[in-house]
Amino acid sequence: MFIDPFGRAITYLRISLTDRCNLRCVYCMPQEGLQWQSRASQLSAEEIARVVKSAARGGVTRVRLTGGEPLVHPHIVEIVRRIASIPAIEEVSLTTNAILLERLTQPLADAGLKRVNISLDSLDADKFRRITRGGDIDRVWRGIAAAERARLAPLKLNTVIVRGLNADELPALARLTMENDWHVRFIEVMPIGNAQDWGEGFPAPSERCVSVHEMKAQLETWNLEPETSPFGNGPARTYRIPNALGTIGFISPLGEHFCQNCNRLRLTSDGRLRSCLVIPNEISLRDALRSGQPLEPFFEQAIAQKPEHHDMLVATPADSQRGMSQIGG
Ligand code: SAM
Ligand code: SF4
User: Fold this and answer.
1) Is 174 in the pocket of ligand 1 (CB under 6 A)?
2) How far is the CA of 23 from the centre of ligand 2 (A)?
3) What is the pLDDT of residue 317?
4) Ligand 2 atom closest to the CA of 68, numbered from 1
5) 247, CA 20 to 30 Å: which among 74, 165, 185, 227?
6) Residue with CA at minimum distance from ligand 2 atom 4
7) If you measure from the C-alpha of residue 22 to the centroid of ligand 2, how many angstroms do you get, rounded to a whole number?
């Protein structure tokens, strides 16, 4: 079993399939000037499956595919099928912007995908287009409807809250849970790879972050009830508007540590194991994979490097080397 130096069992692997994306969300990627990883440097479907088999031997039971945008990967369905067919893997899920979800939902569900988290930062079509630099919100809604039809549940919606951009939409987004059995999660914007100017009309770096504390205060009149059994074992603190079908979560990577329950390891699309989103240490297993060496020692090494907790304000330079799309958000 993979147990880290602080006694935490590592059972969850997040895999970034690609650093590429069909959107350019202002807080995640610059509009242009990104250096894409070469296809040759990225792991193939077969290589990814071998990594997951090795992780499964160490006790990993759940895998989430992310990116960049996992649905732009040409072999996404095959990757899901290969991972889902590994007996020890109980759940394969993915995080997506849903732009390509409508037509891929059924093939993915047939391949063994269990759940999707969908990023949606605004309910307003024009604002959504501005935040994502060109995204069509109607495609996201069609993707959500398709995911519901395919019972990829419970559906989670991720919303990164940015002051002066979409913070005013907190109540409207929270209200979605009244009628829908969805888990809407509000996320503090992290200063990872996005310190540059986002363009005219967007907030300056020092103004962007709305704390979870402020977000909750904005919903104070709703009498949110804490949930005793939040579904999923993610980092969100979970609440429910009285009598609502769905729940609301708050994720605060900056303010409140969720590190004590951290059970995850990350694999970047160029084959590096990363033990923490924030701490930049990475261990490449690509060469070992390609030369047929056993991968377990690399997992052991990465897990041994897992920090007890990150102190983001201290450990992360304001603009870290790798952006969220490269690490796998
Ligand atoms: N493209 C997919 C998507 O957007 O859902 C998956 C990759 S994206 C990097 C994963 C998640 O990270 C998204 O929910 C996105 O909103 C979030 N994210 C990206 N940059 C972030 C940042 N600087 N702070 C907080 N969350 C961020
Ligand atoms: Fe693409 Fe997701 Fe980053 Fe937006 S948050 S640019 S959709 S990877």
Assistant:
1) no
2) 6
3) 42
4) 8
5) 165
6) 25
7) 8
Ligand in nearest proximity to the CA of 120: 1
Is any ligand 1 atom within 6 A of the Cβ of residue 108?
Answer: no
pTM of the full structure: 0.93
CA-to-CA dists, residue 4 to 165, 200, 231, 271, 307, angstroms: 39, 45, 24, 21, 9
Cβ of 19 less than 6 Å from ligand 1:
no
Q: Tokens 């809250």 label which residue?
A: 161
- Where do the domains of the chain lie, and which CATH numbers do they carry? 12-327 (3.20.20.70)
pLDDT digits (tens, 9 = 90+) for 35-92: 899 989 999 999 999 999 999 999 999 999 999 999 999 999 999 999 999 999 999 9
Distance 67 CA to ligand 2 centre (A): 8
Cα of 189 to ligand 2 centre, how many Å?
Answer: 13
Give the DSSP H/E element, type plus range, for residue 146.
helix 137-149
Residue 297's CB is within 10 A of a number of other CB atoms, namely 12
Tell me which amino acid residue 306 is.
K
**Closest residue by Cα to residue 180 from 251, 123, 112, 221:** 123
- Atom number of ligand 2 nearest to Cα 324: 3
Per-residue pLDDT of the chain (329 residues; tens, 9 = 90+): 899 999 999 999 999 999 999 999 999 998 888 889 998 999 999 999 999 999 999 999 999 999 999 999 999 999 999 999 999 999 999 999 999 999 999 999 999 999 999 999 999 999 999 999 999 999 999 999 999 999 999 999 999 999 999 999 999 999 999 999 999 999 999 887 788 888 888 888 888 999 999 999 999 999 999 987 544 445 668 999 999 999 999 998 765 567 888 899 999 999 999 998 878 889 999 999 999 999 999 999 999 998 888 765 444 444 355 677 777 76
Q: Cβ(157)–Cβ(182) under 8 Å?
A: yes
